[in-house]
Design goal:
It contains five helices and seven strands, in the order E-E-E-H-E-H-E-H-E-H-E-H. The protein has 168 residues and is an alpha/beta fold. It has a single domain (11-164), classed as Rossmann fold (3-Layer(aba) Sandwich). It has a five-stranded parallel sheet. A two-stranded antiparallel ribbon has the order 2-3. The longest helix is centred in the last third of the chain and has 17 residues, at 148-164. InterPro entries: Cell_Envelope_Assoc, DUF218, Rossmann-like_a/b/a_fold. This is DUF218 domain-containing protein. Residues 10-158 form the DUF218 domain.
C-alpha cells in the first residue's frame, strides 16, 4: 500500500523510461497509468511528461506518454512535453525549467509530484530538492515484483552515481 499523495498538486512530472518503437514499456506504462489516475482525480493538475528519444525508440518517451494519455481521455491542454532528457537527473532539471516558466503570477512556487516506479521515488524526489524545488513529493507506481531485486540493485548504483556527481 502506497501513501496517498497530496491532492490538487499544481504539476506532476512523469519520469520517462524505455519505449519500444512507439509503445510504452511495462515499467513506463505503470508510471503513466498512475499519472492518469492522479490526473483524473485532480482535474486542475497539469503533467510534464519527461523523456527524450533513446536507442530503439521511434518517438520520444514524452511523445509516447502524451499519445497514451490523450487516448485515455486526458486533455492535451494539461499535458506538457519535455523531450530532451536522457536520464533521471535531466528529467527533473528540464521539467522544472518548464514549470518555472509557467509559475504562478503571484510568485507562488508550484507544488509538484514526481510519478515513477516505487523503487525510483527516493532518487526522483531527492534530485528535485537538490535542484531547489521545496515542495516536491513522490507519487509511486507499481513495478514488476519479479524484477524488484534487479530494480533495487540498479537503483542503488544510480543513487551512488548521482550522489558522487553532486546531483543529490
Amino acid at each position: 500500500m502506497f501513501h496517498q499523495p497530496s491532492k490538487d498538486l499544481d504539476y506532476i512530472i512523469v519520469l520517462g523510461a524505455q519505449v519500444n518503437g512507439t509503445k510504452l514499456s511495462n515499467s513506463l506504462r505503470l508510471r503513466v497509468e498512475r499519472a492518469r489516475e492522479y490526473l483524473e482525480d485532480n482535474p486542475e493538475t497539469c503533467a510534464v511528461l519527461s523523456g527524450g528519444k533513446g536507442t530503439g525508440e521511434d518517438v520520444t518517451e514524452a511523445e509516447a506518454m502524451y499519445r497514451y494519455l490523450e487516448k485515455k481521455g486526458i486533455s492535451p491542454k494539461r499535458l506538457l512535453k519535455e523531450e530532451h532528457s536522457t536520464n533521471t537527473s535531466e528529467n527533473l532539471k528540464f521539467s522544472l525549467e518548464i514549470i518555472d516558466t509557467k509559475e504562478d503570477e503571484k510568485g507562488k512556487e508550484a507544488s509538484i509530484g514526481v510519478v515513477t516506479n516505487n523503487f525510483h521515488v527516493y532518487r526522483g524526489v531527492a534530485l528535485g530538492k537538490k535542484l531547489g524545488c521545496s515542495y516536491i513529493e513522490g507519487i509511486p507506481s507499481k513495478s514488476n515484483k519479479f524484477l524488484q531485486v534487479n530494480y533495487l540493485v540498479r537503483e542503488f548504483f544510480g543513487v551512488v552515481k548521482d550522489k558522487a556527481a553532486g546531483n543529490m
